[in-house]
Amino acid sequence: MQDQLCTHNDLDGVSCGILAKYAFNDKIDVYYHSVNSLDYHVERFLNEASEKKTKHELYITDLSVNKENELRLNEYVSNGGEIQLIDHHKTALHFNEYNWGLVQVEESHGKLASATSLFYKYLVEKNIIKPTNALDEYVELVRQYDTWEWEKNENISAKRLNDLLYMQSIEEFEEKMLDRLEQNDHFTFDEFEEKILDIEEKKTERYIRRKRKELVQTFIGDLCVGIVHAESYHSELGNALGKDYPHLDCISILNMGNKKISFRTIHDCVDVSELASKYGGGGHAKAAGCQITKEAYKEFVQKPFSIKPLKEDARHNRYNNKDRCAHYENKEDEQFLIYNGKKEQFVIEKNHVLLPEAYPSFELAERFLKRSYSAGLSKDEKLMSYLIKSYEQNK
Question: Distance of CA 279 to CAs 39, 217, 288, 294, 302, Å?
Answer without folding.
Answer: 18, 19, 11, 9, 15
